């Protein structure tokens, strides 16, 4: 089958994304922070209040998903951390850049049976299109240390890594940003 990437625009599409998250985050990775074991979904209020959910389908099955939120709609979790490199570097390299025109990519999941098939890059391309349509200049993302494959994909695709967390703060991984507009 061929993979189709789109914005989840029906309750059924959104539910399939939240169920895939549950399967990967809760069952596979043992992260229960946002798990609802009754509905077998993994969700927080941002999903329904102000996010765009991108899904990848193989036939009728959702095999990948990511969440896209926009800084213009309200601050991100750890907002200062995501804006820090932009505030520090971008005014020098890109004078007049809009530092609030940021899109955050998170909750990225690809079903284990479909990894290595180019699904993540296609979902990111769709997310970039959505962010540009909203007038965003930057995309930011945090990637857990355990997701070496995702970090490698971002490195190859020109994302800039600007922060490596340490275990003392409860999370390890790298933060990335990419300039997507003027």
Structure write-up:
The termini are far apart. The protein has a single domain, classed as Gcn5-related N-acetyltransferase (GNAT) (Aminopeptidase). It is built from 5 helices and 9 strands, in the order E-H-E-E-H-E-E-H-E-H-E-H-E-E. 34% of the residues lie in helices and 30% in strands. The chain is α+β, with helices and mostly antiparallel strands. The mean pLDDT is 83.
What's this model, at a glance?
This protein has 182 residues and is an alpha+beta fold. It has helices at residues 11-28, 45-49, 79-93, 119-133, 148-156, and strands spanning 3-7, 35-36, 41-42, 52-58, 61-70, 102-110, 138-144, 160-164, 173-179. It contains five helices and nine strands.
Q: How many E-type strands?
A: 9
The rounded Rg comes to 16 Å
Q: Overall 3D geometry?
A: globular
The total count of helices amounts to: 5
Tell me about the largest β-sheet: 7 strands, mixed
Can you tell me the residue ranges where pLDDT is under 50 for at least 5 consecutive residues? none
Mean pLDDT level? 83
CATH fold call:
Aminopeptidase
Q: Would you identify the CATH architecture?
A: 3-Layer(aba) Sandwich
By secondary-structure content and strand pairing, the structural class works out as alpha+beta
């Amino acid at each position: 089958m061929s993979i189709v990437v789109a914005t989840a625009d029906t309750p059924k599409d959104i539910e399939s994304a939240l169920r895939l998250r549950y399967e990967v985050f809760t069952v596979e990775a043992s992260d229960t922070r946002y798990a609802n074991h009754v509905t077998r979904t993994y969700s927080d209020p941002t999903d329904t209040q102000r996010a765009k959910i991108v899904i990848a389908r193989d036939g009728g099955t959702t095999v990948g998903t990511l969440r896209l939120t926009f800084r213009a709609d309200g601050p991100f979790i750890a907002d200062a951390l995501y804006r820090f490199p932009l505030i520090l570097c971008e005014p020098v390299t890109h004078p007049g850049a809009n530092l609030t025109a940021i899109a955050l990519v998170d909750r990225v999941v690809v079903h284990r049976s479909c990894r290595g098939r180019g699904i993540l890059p296609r979902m990111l391309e769709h997310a970039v299109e959505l962010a540009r349509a909203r007038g965003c200049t930057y995309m930011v993302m945090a990637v857990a240390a355990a997701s070496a494959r995702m970090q490698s994909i971002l490195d190859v695709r020109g994302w800039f890594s600007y922060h490596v967390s340490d275990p003392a703060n409860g999370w390890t991984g790298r933060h990335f940003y990419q300039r997507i507009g003027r």
